[in-house]
Design a protein that fits this description.
It contains 27 helices and no strands. With about 575 residues, it is mainly alpha-helical. The N and C termini lie far apart (about 60 Å). Keywords: Ion transport, Membrane, Sodium, Sodium transport, Transmembrane, Transmembrane helix, Transport.
């Protein structure tokens, strides 16, 4: 029996691929409406995305296959959904990320931030979290975690090595004091550590756990801050631009102003939570509030050694010309994004009043991204001209699967709108309008946070956007009031190694167990949702005018009975 079930489990993906379409086939065959046919496509894609029975990008092609057969959309119309302004923005951002990775700018930024903040365990955790969060604002969360984890691992090994040296010197001193000629048996051998040999004591093990989770979680938290920071943010922005073209409040500047305080709150709270969970309750120690003691002297010796390692790593290679060029373009891109249409003041887009809305963040990203293929990396000669990046290097970094996944999501959303599925679901959920608006948003955030633990972030937000937006319209609240918190909550996938790639990367280094990640992630999920609800209820309301129903959203007959 065990052999049979084991063999069956090994074919689980094939069984899901075959059985799922057959089990839900009565839906379009019996009901025979476009709503049922689109629902069939949605359920099928949701199952395949959550189980990953098929690659995510392959599942994203199902609308292009099924919608023409069901008569929902023409094939030529579906095809236009698979390449949007989002994809052009992603191309430019990946050009920048390719240059940053190629020339090692990410490593220098991370080490510089860590050496500035300090090297005792608490400050070391904070330093890596700040550096990792800053990098993930501009690079993918996966790339950031993959870049920073090897640096953190080297630092952890150096910390444990310094700890061993200090302990060995103390033990030798004790032995010299206690060794007397009259009694050679005064001293006894110290008991061996019950832990794995790579950890000298439990405190070292706990430090490795805490620092590993700091890298994984901060890579996800930092991506919240900017629209290009994570794919779910970009999917949300493109959805708004596609289905609410008159909405001008979703831009780089407004998003940054709204999300930066959220990122700071969640990051600082995560630091305190992880320190308390893995390094104990003596919070004053990492805040340097305790007076000098034997413990502090011991820590100082170890910190000096670690600081020497970090400084040596930071200054071992001088800043190269390529790093400087990349940093300058990086800075220009960020500034141009921020001041295009910041919302609180006129941006550079206002210089072209005859072409409103023509230039987007993708325009800036493409303009500066192309420069990486033009600017020479070294002094050009008659026989040699090497650009900052090559097309092959760009291809290696370009997440083509995300392009297809996002395109499939846009096609699914358009199909749900054309078929009437979105309106049907919204009407079905209108009883939620009897609840306070904040309660409805909280339920949506919790639901999304739970599902994103077992499904990819882009897939989760792609499924929920075409459902929650019509729901907001049906109960007569600003769609942004519903969509912004749920978009941010999608990134709070902290419970399991499989929840997102940064978690898996940190888990692969062998310091963590599943229960470690569940305990830490559960608390951080709660912190994240509460921070988002605080933001949307306070400064977000005035920034995005969430207390009024906007002119750019369609008007329904149903009214919200509670107000905001």
């Amino acid at each position: 029996m065990r052999a049979f079930t084991g063999g069956l489990w090994s074919y689980r993906n094939l069984l899901i691929i075959i059985l799922t379409p057959l089990l839900i086939l009565p839906l379009p065959l019996v009901i025979k409406t476009q709503v049922a046919e689109c629902a069939y496509t949605l359920v099928l894609m949701a199952v395949f995305w959550m189980t990953e029975a098929l690659p995510l990008s392959v599942t994203a092609l199902l609308p292009a296959l099924l919608f023409p057969f069901f008569g929902i959309m023409k094939s030529s119309v579906v095809a236009t959904m698979y390449f949007k302004d989002f994809h052009l923005l992603l191309l430019g951002v990946i050009c920048l990320a390719t240059s940053i990775e190629k020339w090692g700018l990410h490593r220098r930024i991370a080490l510089k931030l860590v050496t500035m903040i300090g090297v005792n365990p608490g400050m070391l955790m904070l330093g890596f979290m700040v550096g990792c969060a800053f990098l993930s604002m501009w690079l993918s969360n996966t790339s950031t975690a993959a870049m920073v984890m090897p640096i953190a691992e080297a630092v952890m090994q150096q910390v444990m090595s310094a700890e061993g040296e200090v302990s060995q010197h103390q033990e030798m001193a004790v032995n010299m004091i206690l060794s007397v000629p009259e009694d050679d048996n005064v001293t006894e051998a110290l008991p061996s550590s019950p832990l794995n040999s790579k950890y000298r004591n439990n405190r070292d093990h706990m430090m490795c756990k805490g620092l590993s989770l700091c890298i994984a979680y901060s890579a996800s938290i930092g991506g919240l801050t900017t629209l290009p920071g994570t794919s779910s943010n970009l999917i949300f922005a493109e959805y708004i631009h596609q289905f609410y073209p008159d909405c001008k409040s979703i831009n780089f500047g407004n998003w940054f102003v709204f999300c930066l305080p959220v990122c700071i709150i969640v990051l600082f709270s995560a630091w305190i939570w992880l320190y308390w969970l893995f390094l104990g309750t003596k919070c004053c120690l990492f805040l340097s509030l305790y007076p000098i003691s034997k413990y502090m002297v011991h820590e100082t010796k170890r910190n000096v050694r670690v600081n020497e390692f970090l400084m040596l790593s930071h200054f071992s290679v001088s800043s190269s010309q390529q790093e400087i060029i990349t940093l300058v373009i990086f800075f220009i891109m960020a500034v141009l994004w921020f001041v295009r249409e910041p919302g609180f003041m006129p941006g550079w887009a206002s210089l072209f009043p005859e072409y409103p809305g023509y230039a987007t963040d993708a325009t800036v990203a493409l303009l500066l991204g192309v420069l990486f293929f033009i600017i020479p990396a070294n002094r050009p000669t008659a026989d040699n001209y090497d650009a900052m990046i090559t097309w092959k290097e760009f291809q290696a970094c370009m997440p083509w699967e995300i392009c297809l996944l996002v395109g499939g999501g846009f096609a699914l959303a358009e199909g749900a709108k054309v078929s009437g599925l979105s309106s049907w679901v919204a009407e079905l959920m209108t009883p939620l309008g009897s609840l306070p608006v904040l309660a409805t948003v909280t339920i949506a955030c919790i639901l999304v946070t739970c599902i994103t633990e077992v499904a990819s972030n882009p897939a989760t937000i792609t499924i929920f956007l075409p459902i929650l937006a019509p729901l907001a319209e049906a109960i007569n609240i600003n769609p942004l009031y519903m969509l912004i918190p749920t978009t941010l909550s999608v990134s709070f996938a902290f419970l399991l190694p499989v929840s997102n790639p940064p978690n898996a990367i940190a888990f692969a280094y062998g310091h963590l167990s599943i229960i470690d990640m569940v305990k830490a992630g559960l608390g951080l999920n709660i912190i994240g949702v509460l921070a988002v609800l605080l933001a949307i209820s306070t400064w977000g309301t005035s920034l995005f005018a969430l207390d009024t129903y906007p002119d750019w959203a369609p008007i329904h007959d149903l009214t919200n009975t509670t107000g905001i």
